[in-house]
Structure formats: structure tokens, C-alpha cells
Amino acid sequence: MSEAITRQIDRSHMQISDEVAIQITSMNKWYGAFHVLRDINMTVNRGERIVICGPSGSGKSTLIRCINRLEEHQSGKIVVDGTELTSDLKNIDKVRSEVGMVFQHFNLFPHLTILENCTLAPIWVRKTPKREAEEVAMHYLSKVKIPEQAHKYPGQLSGGQQQRVAIARSLCMKPRIMLFDEPTSALDPEMIKEVLDTMIELAEEGMTMLCVTHEMGFAQAVANRVIFMDQGQIVEQNEPKEFFNNPQSDRTKLFLSQILGH
Amino acid sequence: MATPTPTFVRTEMLGPQEPPISQSGAVKWLRENLFSTPLNSLLTLLGLAFAYLVLRTVVPWAWNGVWSASSLGECRQIIAETLGPDSHAACWAVIGERWQQFIFGFYPLDLYWRPVLAFGLLFCALGPILYFGQSGNNLRIVGASGLLTLGALLGVRHFVAKANPPSDAILSDNPMVLVIAVVIFALLGVVAKLRPQKLVWFSILYPLIGFYLLWGGSVWAPIGTLVGFVILALVWYGLQRQVGVVVAGGAGLVTAAVWWIWVQSAVTDKLNNAIPLGLLYERSDQFGGFLLAFVIGVAAISASLPIGILLALGRRSDMFLIKTLSVGFIEFVRGVPLITMLFVASLLLQYFLPPQTNFDLILRVIILVTLFSAAYIAEVIRGGLAALPRGQYEAADALGLDYWQAQRLIIMPQALKISIPGIVSSFIGLFKDTTLVALVGLADPLQGITKIVRADINWKGIYWEPYLFVGLIFFAVCFSMSRYSMYLERKLKRDHR
To answer: Which of A62, A154, B314, B373 has its CA 20 to 30 A from that of A249?
Structure first.
């Protein structure tokens, strides 16, 4: 299960501060009459690396999509970096420019080159001069190890490369928090490793990360906390070692036996 | 029998080889497309026979046509003399005799240079839109249209001098026109060479330039209209940060309307009295033929695309009022025949305007044709918007782009690309529909002018030739639009390169 993680992880910069990055209090969300998220309470401190897992339909993607308001919650409170998410567009835009998001299907802009994908938001949202934005973009593209693809279009890249571009695109906004919504689920096994390596590097630099993923090897190697969700609620959360070796609830045991069984 | 070997290891990789002759080139094409089965071979032969039968009559008819004659009777006489009695041939002389009506309608002969210059400049204005920022293409367009325009101006001058007894007005007017045209095209060429992106400003100003060249009148009228647009842009720009794009746009429009309706004419009248500058004013009933078709077609096409985009966005908006208005407008306009709209333009619209406003019939027709076509374009673009994956909107949102930035930078470039074939079909349909203006008394090339030509005692009884001529021009225009759309689709293709 952890064959994708092969290297030693440098933990020197992985420090969790006392500062609260995300505070969610008794949050509920409905899709029509369907109660997707039920009484979610959760605090994320700066520097934390949290993996959220659970069966499909358990609301884990919806939860992290609420954090940058891609989904609207109907009750409760979400505070990101001191800004509360309400219907106020200014607050939403502020939170979105501080929070990076990586999607399952990459969602690169197919009509723009890799470089343009990366410089678009810095230029238009942060008002960075074009030249400076391009320098920053090349820096992050080198970091995800594809600077030579900068002038190609997304359609010419492999899935793993596209996902790394998507990560670089988020990083170009210099976010303080990164959300990952099943970043490796749409990839071939060969490409999962390159994306996970990029995510590990990010963790090593002390980024606050929330990852919805089924990569339990990644969770064990990088996360400081694993959250298990089922039926729209948080069922169990613990540090990874305890979570995997000594799960408390029956639902967690069943889930772990199913995904780790073979 | 050889025993199968259970293991196999390739030691040498095979290189590519030439395909067999029957699988390549003309032989393959013939085989696959014309003679793949006995039935298809038979159908191919039948098709060829049919084509031969048709061409055997049509080609000699067109080829042996008479090019110079002053009436249909003279034409028939020449044909009978050269080809023998009872033979049929075209009488193209009607085109040679009456071409100026097909092209210019009843526009005064000695002012032909105005539509010619407007038409030449139209291509210079289209260049930056069709090939934005491409120095080479724009320079070629400016050069070619410049040369053709100068040629046409000289030709028209020659024609007018021949048709009219030389009067001082014509002779003193025309050389200046040539000089001005040379200067304008040279300036545009320099801009296209050095700053091709700046050429788009000419495209933005062109509607007023073209309008002024065609209708003439005081030079202050188009400048006053332009000031209205500048007011609109300034109000919008000043307010959009505080109150949002939509409200700012509305406020700008209201301010500009106040200027246009109540202030402009007072100011321009004063200016005109102080500095009377201008060209001779031409009334709308002097327009006709392809001049009319192009004025209505080009104006309606270029105005209906932005309106269509706004309507499509409005239809998908979360704001109830905007959504309802957009849906209501689109469904109402699509449910009404174009002819009804044209009658509204010619008869009803006057009732809704303030009294004493003299609102040109062609302008009214352009407005209603624009609205009609915008409703169709909106639906085509809505299809393109619906085809975009939700992830594109989400990625734009997640990066912190606001609604208009996301639409302009992410959504519209992709949605419009998907909609190109539909949009161009609408445009082609619109251009051909300009012939319907015959029903409100304008002289379109097909109904209006051809009817007039055929009513002439000299050409009574002529049938095929004028219609073929008009059809050919329509075909040339529509076919170029379709080819351009294919070029654009190829150019914008981003996958599998």
C-alpha cells in the first residue's frame, strides 16, 4: 500500500503552530432535502497536514469544497484565516485567493499554454506585472519538474504532468492553505508517484494541507492527522499511526479492512 | 505442423514499410470513394452521366453568352446571327449595362467614391478582428484593399466621367478623394506594420466612419454620437468598481441616452453653425443593391455578437430579473418571423420614439435585424456554454477570478470556439435574410433591383442572368465566411497537436 512513497521524508520544516488556519463550527449542508454534511466541527492549525478519507458519498469532497465556497453551507460557521465565509463576495474572493485548490480532473484551462495557466490568476487577481508573474510561474514549474513544458498546451501533457501543473498553478498565487480533492484518483498508477512526490515536497516546506485521498501510504508518511468520514459526519480522527493500527469505531475498522485488505 | 514455441523474444525491431500500391494514392481513393461495390460503381456512372447532361446544356449557354448589347432584343439578334436561329445563350449584357444598380442602388453617380471608400476601409477594419495582432496578415489586407480601392476609385471616376457630361464638381472633387484615400491607407499600413494591435482602434471607430461616408451630412453628427459612447465608457469605468459591472453599464447607458436624445443635437447644431463641415447628405431611399445588403448585414452581424453573448450570459444568470428578461426576450424574438420585425421597424417603431425624431429607416431595420439575430446567437452560445465542463468554472472560482474575469478569460474563449460553426451559420443566414428588406420598400439586390431591371422595357423577359449574378455574389460572400470559420476552428484547435 505504501509502495508509492519510497523516499525519506525531511521533517525539519513540518512544524504545527498554535495559530488557527481554518475553524469550522457546527456546520451543516444540504443538497435540496439531502443532508450531506452533519454538524461538522473542526479546527486546522497552521502547518497541519490532514488527510480526509472515507467511502464515496461520505461528504469528504463537499467538506473541503465548502472551505473555499465552491459549495455553500446552510448553517454553522467557517472561518478561514480570520475571514468568515458568508455570501459577501469580497470575503469569498479574499479566501479564494489565499486558498489553493487541486482538483481530481486537474481542470487546467485547455485554451491557454501551461505558462498562461500559471500566470493568469496572479496577473488578473493579484495584479502582478506580467514579467514577474512569469518568473514566479517558471520557478514553480521547475519545482514540479516540468519547466520545459511551459509553452505547450494542457492537452499535450500526460495526466501526471497536468496534475503537477495544476499544483504549480495554485502555488503561483502563493496560497497559505492548499486543498487537494482526490488529486491522484484520475491517474494511472505510474503517474501517481510523481504527483505524490510533489505533494510531499510541499508538506516538507511546511504548507498547511487538507487532502481528500485514498493514498494511505501518503497519509502514513506525511499526515499529522487522519479524519475518517461517513454519512456526512466525522466518525473518527487520530494521528496516522494510531488511526491505522488501532482504529476505535467499527465503521472505521470495516473501511480500513476493505481498502487495506488486498 | 510446426509446434508453437511457448516463449518469444524479439531481437530486432521492425522499421515502417511502404503500404501496398492499392492502399495509397489515387487508386485507393477511387476504390474507396467511387467503386467500392458494384452498386456504388453503377451509381457513380449514373451520377457522372447526369452531371454531363446538365453541364452539356449549361456550359455552352453561359460560355456563348453575349456581353455587349443594349437590350434583350439586340442580344437575341446577336445570338441568332452567330449561333444560328433557335439556339440559346445567356445575355450577360444586362449585367454590363446595369451593374451599377445592382451594386449601388440609386446612390448618386458622382458620389460612388463614398461607398467604394467605405467598402475598402471595411476590410481594413475587419482585419484586426479576424487576425488580431498579426502584423503580416493585417498589412496584406490593408495593402490589398488599398490597391483595390484605388483601382475601383479610378474605375468609378472613369465610368462617371463617361456617363455624365463632365461637370466642374466631379473633376475638382475626385483627385482630392484619391489623395485622401492614399493617405488613409498609407497611415493604416504603417500602423499595421509597426503596432498591429493598435489597429483595433480603427475597427472600433469604423462604424462611425462608414456611417458618415455613406450618409454624409454634417461631420459633427457622428462626432456627437461618438461623444455619447465616450460618456458611456467613462461612466461605466468610473462606477464599475463601486457598484459592479451591470449597474455601472446601465448607468452609463442612461447617461449616454440623455446625451443622445436631449443634448447632442443642440451642441452639434451650434458647432455646425460655427464650423460648417461635411459631405452631401444622402437619404436612405437612395441606398440599394449590395450596398444595402452589406450595410445591413455587416452592421447587424457585428452588433449581434456582443448582444448575443450578453443575452446568453443573462439566460444563465442567477439573478432572477436578468434571467427572466433574457429568456423573455430570446423566446419572444425567436417566436416571431423576421418579416414581422421588419414591419415593426418600418411602421411601429416610429410610435415609440419621441416626436420629431427623424429615425432613418435603414437604421431601424438594422436595429431590429440585430435584435433578431442576437436572439439566435444567444442560443448558439448557450450551447457552447453548456458544453463546457463544470470544472472550468470551479477552477476559475478557486483561483479567485471574479465573474467577469472568469467569463472573459476562461469561459467565453472556450464557449465561443465551440460555437463557431453555429455562429457563422447564423451570420450567413442573417446576410441572406437582408434580401427580405424588399418587403418594407428597400431595394435589396434580389427582389428590389432585379425587379426594377426586369421591368425596364429594354430587358423585359430576362430571367436567369440577373438572378445568377446576384446569387453568385451572395454565394461568394457566404462561402468566404464559411471558409474563414473553418480556418478559425483549425487555428484554435488545441488538442492532439
So the answer is: A62
